[in-house]
Amino acid sequence: MTARVPAQFAGDLNELVSVEKSGSASHPRAHSGFTMTTIAHAQELFRRADAVCFDVDSTVIREEGIDELAKFCGVGDAVTEMTRNAMGGSVSFHTALSERLSIIKCSREQVNKLITDHPPQLTTGIKELVEKLHQRNVKVFLISGGFRCIVEHVASQLNIPLHHVYANRLKFYFNGEYAGFDESQPTAQTGGKGTVIRMLKEQYGFENIVMIGDGATDLEACPPASAFIGFGGNVVRQQVKEKSSWYVTSFGELLKELEKI
Questions:
Q1: What 8-state DSSP symbol labels residue 58?
Q2: Which of 12, 50, 57, 214 is catalytic?
Q3: Bridge partner residues of 181 (DSSP)
Q4: Is the Cβ–Cβ distance between 16 and 112 less than 8 Å?
Q5: Which domains, ranges and CATH numbers included, belong to the chain?
Q6: Residue 12 known to be catalytic
């Protein structure tokens, strides 16, 4: 999934990785295309999952990475509302991402410093849940509309292989100034998380993949995901809550479900 970067670019945020390393509510309705319609069915699919894919911002971590970057660059107010609209599904994800980044225009140095000074905070219970899934030989993936350098930092804390990370890449000129983002990545497009899940099914032969997340871009990933679990532990998005067959507000609820086996 690595795209070639034009010669005028110094590279993407993969370079930053080396720097880094040196009670639940529910609703019975399902959105169009859902293969599951009940909490019980969703729970069963989760218990039997071959792979579990997590959204990152406001799910695996407490914050929205792009909002934190915007605040760090002094344009937080202008970007936060756009993020809310993107996660609520009122605008296309690609449009929202492009517009927000055009406002932020972060430098490589700013992104580096954000990760150093304000590392992403894991949501309570996620480390234990991922450990439990790994113990059961369930493959865990992070599929994010956020930025790869931040998501890889999160993956390393959770012992998730970096080749199980799918996220967006920022581009920079040789002087470190912002030069856009890699639009060839599926996670940069509307419906991109579903595209990644289809790729995972083809690559690994998974029959049962569960998607967990807080936003509209996660909800749209089912299908091709076998089940979608809405997560409201950090932020509640009404559209997601209403259209999730199983909606949880803590990862402890998912751990309890695994303990039934």
A1: I
A2: 57
A3: 170
A4: yes
A5: 10-20+37-258 (3.40.50.1000)
A6: no
